[in-house]
Fold:
Amino acid sequence: MNEINIAYCDVVQPQILGVHPYIPGKPVSELQRELGLTYVSKLASNENPLGASPSVLTAIQHELKEIARYPDGSAYTLKATLAEFLSIKPEQLAVGNGSNELLELVARVFAGPGDEILYSQYAFAVYPISAQVVGATGIEVPAKNWGHDLQAMLAAITDKTKLIYLANPNNPTGTVFSRLEWEDFINQVPKNVIVVLDEAYIEYAQAQLSDDEYANGIDYLTTHSNLLVSRTFSKAYGLASLRVGYMAGCKEIIQYINQIRAPFNVNNYAQIAAISALNDQGFVEKVLLLNQQGMRQIKDALATLGVDSIPSAGNFLCIDLGKEALKVNQKLLEEGVIVRPLSNYGLSQFLRVSIGTQVENQHFIDALKSILFSMSKDL
Ligand SMILES: Cc1ncc(COP(=O)(O)O)c(C=O)c1O
Structure:
């Protein structure tokens, strides 16, 4: 047969051509390979510096003999455990391969070419990607003080708006909107527009803020059938590598999400780990305490150095290094510290640093201090 030369860009779905893939944090092994470093602190992906609860590791070990079996495709026990934890019904839950999968599935359920999906400037990068992949028009609403301007988002709703993504706290900025702002917003969104409230960092926010400063989305599900709340086991529960998250909402919408997800989207180990993790809230308390101490440690050091940051309710901080941010990033890598540059978010003067252990935080602080000192000498 003759080989036919095909330019696949001519046959690929047009909306796929413009998709800019999500940029993950640099893996430790990559930096070690590149720079021959032995000691590296990865503070680039908002991961849990304490790892996972020991009970999770034991549960996974017990289950290793089941590796050849398919997982429970309905995630019955995980959903039952979650439903009890959240005081909702199991039918109100969909579980996903990370909450990331669910964020994308919602776009597939509700939007297509000609529709609009709203999200805030500087909001989590997966929202514009999800809009693009389904051929919908992503509408980026200008931010206010680096965070969501919910009034402006309300004003941006048109007849074409199908979906609104909100992150509270937002990644990468760490900003939150208050209970009052949230209630005012959700009460005015038309019922045929779906609101996805992404609460990937809720545990950290609740530990750092008062009830007035932060609203828990689950409390609004009974009164707002157009609301979906997504959460993850990747952060406070320390299960990022297993990929498991969930979405809660009204039974009917959740049914549509379950209808299109892959049959075994959450693997057995992720399900078992998530159940164990939920049952060990003592571990989460330790994680949250460490985060608060680490946040203070880094903020105090930044204050001494005269470096500004965006107030954050998450497990990370956006620090303002002005024109030097990328240069500082490169020098931090050379010192064995991986943080996240944010040019792809239009935040090129910032570096996002995840809160790590006391030792990792100090590694970052010491490296930053000496970098800024040597740069000031070069001026
Ligand atoms: C705001 C936000 N939402 C969702 C996710 C996705 O998390 P996962 O897919 O690991 O559940 C992340 C991950 O960084 C995030 O920052």
